[in-house]
Amino acid sequence: MIRNLALACSALALLAGTSASAAPKTPDYITAAIDDAARPADDKQLDAERKPAEMLAIAHVKPGQRVMDMIPGHGYFTRLFAKAVGPKGYVYAFQPSEFDAFSKGKPAPVRAVAAEYPNVTVIDAPANSLTAPEPLDLVWTSQNYHDLHDSFAKPADLATINKAVFNALKPGGLYVVLDHAAEKSSGLRDTETLHRIDEASVKSEVEAAGFKLAGESNVLRNPDDAHTLKVFDPAIRHKTDQFILIFRKPRR
After folding, report:
1. Strand ranges in 86-168 using DSSP code E only, listed in sequence order
2. Dihedral sign, CA of 53, 59, 65, 67?
3. Which one, out of 57, 209, 217, 222, has a CA that is 20 to 30 A from the CA of 199?
4. Separation CA 111–CA 122 (nearest Å)
5. CB 53, CB 26: distance < 8 Å
6. Is residue 90 classed as helix, strand or coil in its secondary structure?
7. Minimum mean pLDDT among 17-21, 68-72, 234-238: which range?
8. Per-residue pLDDT averaged across 199-207, rounded?
9. What SS3 state is found at 183?
10. How far apart are CA 51 and CA 139, in angstroms?
11. Neighbour order of strands in the sheet with 66-70
12. How far apart are CA 17 and CA 88, in angstroms?
C-alpha cells in the first residue's frame, strides 16, 4: 500500500491502534469522522471509491492537528478532517480565488461546510498568496494539483505555491498530493486536456520547494486505466488510476 518501510509501519500501526502485527483496526476518531451524521448523502456515496479511512490514515490525521485542505471543492475531505481533528484541532479550507468562477457568482460550496463546523475557516485568496494563520501539521490536496497548471488558474505558479506550503507547515509536517495519473514521462502535457498529471512532475516540483518524499500509496491505483481518456469520460470516471505522494518538511 505504501512504498516506504517506516511510513508503512507507522500507517499500519495507526490503523491498528496498537502494533503493526495486530489486526488492523480503524481508530475511533476516524470512524467517527466517516460516520458523522452531518455528512451529506452525496459524500457518503463517494466513500467506496475515495476510501476515507485509508486516506486519513495515510495522511496521519490525528485529533488536535492543524490541517489545510487545499482546493477543497465541495468539502468532501474538509468535513472528514474537521470531525477527525476534533474541537481542539482546526481546518483551513484554502479556496484559490482563481477557482471562484466555478461557483458562478455564488459562495464557494465549501463555505457551507464552514457554517456547519465551528473548527473550519475558509481562506479565499489568490493561489500564489497561500498562507495559514498558524503552523500546520498537514496540507492535503486531492484531484486538483494538476489544475494549478491550467490556463484558468493563471498566474498560479507551482514553484511559488509549493514553497508557500513548505513555509506554512511545521517542521516534520506532511504535504499529501493525490491526483489522476497521466502517462509516464508525459510531464504537464495532459493537465488541461485530460485533467491528469505525470506523478514524476509532481515529485520534481514539490521536492524543489525543499520537501522530501516520505512515501507513496497504491490504494487508489487502477492498472486497467490506460491514461488516455479524460477523467470525466464515463468509461473511466470514478475509477481513474490515482497516485498518492506523501512529502515531509525536514525537521531541520
Report:
1. 90-96, 120-125, 136-142
2. negative
3. 57
4. 6
5. yes
6. strand
7. 17-21
8. 98
9. coil
10. 18
11. 120-125, 90-96, 66-70, 136-142, 169-180, 242-248, 212-217
12. 20
208: its cell numbers? 524543489
140-191 pLDDT tens trace: 999 999 999 999 999 999 999 999 999 999 999 999 999 999 999 999 999 9
**Cα 113 to Cα 27, 50, 83, 171, distances in angstroms:** 23, 19, 11, 29
Burial 125-162 (b: 16+ CB within 10 A, else e): eebbebebeeebbbbbbbbbbbbbbeeebeebebebbb
Cα separation, 243 vs 223, whole angstroms: 11
- The overall pTM is greater than 0.85: yes
Measure the CA–CA gap between 79 and 210, rounded to whole angstroms. 29
Q: Give the chain's largest Cα–Cα span.
A: 52
C-alpha distances (whole Å) from 114 to each of 72, 124, 126, 187, 217 are 11, 12, 19, 35, 29
Nearest to 237 by CA among 216, 251, 222, 247: 222
Instruction: pLDDT band for 2, please (50, 70, 90 cuts).
Output: low
